[in-house]
Amino acid sequence: MGDFMARLRKADGMGARSLEFTILTAARSGEVRGAVRSEIDLDARLWVVPAGRMKGQKEHRKPLSKAAIQLLKSLTKIAGTEYVFPAPRMGMISDATMGAVLERMGVAAVPHGFRSTFRDWAAECTNYPGEMAEMALAHAVSDKVEAAYRRGDLYMKRAKMMEDWAKFCATPSTVKGVVVSLPVAAKG
């Protein structure tokens, strides 16, 4: 992941920046494409995605890592649009924009797949509870009893998790593809 992110950060264009932000926030691409400046509080390191743009039709508070804030601060505000990641003609970037970045990079993946990467990282590389990763992904609780009793959103704990995710994304792989010859067993 770190090697890919290093390559992505060298890529030019709003599509590359929106894909980077999508990965850092584990957001759905549509949430990022529709993001407007008024939803983001840089000082509080908070992005509030309104219910109308969420798959589950419920407002979602997303904690922003230092890397996500740095990315946002690096963007030039373009007059005539409130979109954080505007298209060249000032509207919302298309749903194909991020995919095109991956294609140009020669990466056989889709933007939504990075949400799965985030979930795998949380499960396999951390001790964060699965429910916290599911909240970060804004997945609905399938258990109706649990959903009825869940009041909080683990925001502060998720902020730490997203910071750790950003660090993971920035860490180059230490494993290099080395082929090792194994001795062939003699036939007996």
3D architecture notes:
The protein is mainly alpha-helical and 188 residues long. The chain has a single domain, classed as hpI Integrase, Chain A (Orthogonal Bundle), CATH 1.10.443.10. The chain has helices spanning 2-10, 14-25, 29-33, 66-74, 97-105, 113-125, 130-136, 144-149, 155-170, and strands at 40-41, 46-49, 60-63. Strands 1-2-3 form a 3-stranded antiparallel beta sheet.
The domain tally reads: 1
Characterize the largest beta sheet: strand count, sense, and whether it forms a barrel: 3 strands, antiparallel
Measured by DSSP, the beta-strand proportion falls in 5-15%
**Total E-strand runs:** 3
Rg measurement, Å: 19 Å
Determine the CATH topology: hpI Integrase, Chain A
Provide the low-confidence segments as ranges: none
Classify the oligomer: single chain
Q: Determine the mean pLDDT.
A: 88
Class derived from helix and strand content: mainly alpha
Strand order of the largest sheet: 1-2-3
In sequence order, what are the helices and strands, one letter per element? HHHEEEHHHHHH
CATH superfamily: Intergrase catalytic core
> What's the CATH class label?
Mainly Alpha
Helix content class: 40-55%
Shape: globular
Main features:
188 residues; mainly alpha; hpI Integrase, Chain A; three-stranded antiparallel beta sheet; 9 helices; 3 strands; 46% helix; globular
